[in-house]
Amino acid sequence: MTYSRRQSASFREIDRWTDGVGWIAHPDEDGLRASHAVCGSEGLWLLDPLRAAGVTDLIETVDDPVAGVAVCSSWHTRDADWFARTYDVPVSVPTWMGRVPERVEAPIRYYDSELEPAIPVMRCEPMPTWTEAILHAEPHGTLYVPDSMGTIAPFTVDEERLGLELLRRLDPPRSLRRLEPDRVLVGHGEGVFEDATRALEDALAGGRRRFPRALLENGPATVRSIAGALSE
């Protein structure tokens, strides 16, 4: 299955470092939706979180109070409401992001260009119904790309450790080229922690050139992924 809609009885921990941790709520799904808890200057931010039994215990291992829930893609509302109620915090959504407000019942905090002072946001609108907020937590060199990039099969080809979503290979987020992150977190799959800047540069520079192979290898999986997202 591309995306599981049942409540998860377990999760897989991923992407642990000093200032955060991640988890995959449904390790058996093809889409491998990833969620993260990332430290900022105002506290701990839950990025695109999915509920799973025991995940609140994992979040508590990061020694910071939860500041808020952040939905970073128009297709990542996920379990934002549940986490907002659990921690009594608002759901943070960019003013320019569609789809999300009508799917959230918790109080919404709108922002424009930064989630908080330490986490600026890059606005990304690949197409009318697809908007995402790419976050750069500058103090600890963490880049989070919700949908445009990933590390699982529908995103990567050849020897790529980090790859572009199929359609984004034709129009990659070039603004990311100026960044030199220590790690790249993604909304689908585990993050890249080793030589992350080089992996990012390779993905952006070779995305268009590798499009024909990506279309052949990842086309069917991309269609299934889109169909799964539309069923939300």
Instruction: Based on Cα principal axes, name the global outline.
Output: globular
Poorly predicted regions are none
Major sheet, described briefly? 7 strands, mixed
By CATH reckoning, the class would read Alpha Beta
The portion of residues assigned to helices is 10-25%
- CATH H-level name... which superfamily? Ribonuclease Z/Hydroxyacylglutathione hydrolase-like
Radius of gyration: 16 Å
CATH architecture label: 4-Layer Sandwich
How many domains would you count in the coordinates? 1
Kindly report the CATH topology: Metallo-beta-lactamase, Chain A
Instruction: Give the oligomeric state.
Output: single chain
Strand content: 25-35%
Q: Order of SSEs, N→C?
A: EEEEHEHEEEEEEEEEHH
Q: Strand order within the widest sheet?
A: 1-2-3-4-5-6-7
Give me the count of strands.
Answer: 14
Computed structural class: alpha/beta
Q: pLDDT average, as an integer?
A: 94
Q: Please, how many helices?
A: 4
Task: Summarize this structure as a short list of keywords or feature phrases.
232 residues, alpha/beta, Metallo-beta-lactamase, Chain A, 7-stranded mixed β-sheet, 4 helices, 19% helix, 29% strand, globular
Write a structural description:
- The protein has 232 residues and is an alpha/beta fold.
- It has a single domain, classed as Ribonuclease Z/Hydroxyacylglutathione hydrolase-like (Metallo-beta-lactamase, Chain A), CATH 3.60.15.10.
- Helix content is 19%, strand content 29%.
- It has a 7-stranded mixed beta sheet with strand order 1-2-3-4-5-6-7. A 5-stranded mixed beta sheet has the order 8-9-10-11-14, covered by helices on one side.
- Strand 4 (43-47), helix 1 and strand 5 form a beta-alpha-beta unit.
- The longest helix has 20 residues, at 211-230.
- The radius of gyration is 16 Å and the shape is globular.
- The model has no long low-confidence stretch (mean pLDDT 94).
